[in-house]
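New to this. Look over this protein:
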Amino acid sequence: MVKVGDKAPDFTLKNTSKEAVTLSDYKGKTVILAFYPGAFTGVCDKEMCTFQENLAKFNECNAIVLGISVDSPWANAEFARRYNLEFELLSDLDRDVVKSYDAKFSGLGGLDGYVSANRAVIIIDSEGMVQYRWVAENPGIEPDYDEVLSFCSA
């Protein structure tokens, strides 16, 4: 499990344009990984919209948000379009990143064997070290957005 103080595992995932996005390309910035179970699922909609509403504040503290789910780039593109999300949504189709960050959830929506991302927020500092980790007890719980904002601003 990735813990606070660990080096963040690097990864490359596809964005909504099917272009590769690599975590290490953001060295020098604070990166907020916002794992979400699935587009258009109510709580995820609210969570991603809340990150969007706070995007200017994150940008002020040299932070970027990367949303990560196991959804396809096409589903993520429609999700971003519908809610005017201006940060990257990345597709972890193989579930490698949700597993490496210990942010996976099995049985979403009562589907036995279906593995999705759990709701989780990981903050990685400009040197690539994990500085904050929050994982929901279940996907219906939202992060403490004020805590994420205050941590980023610190």
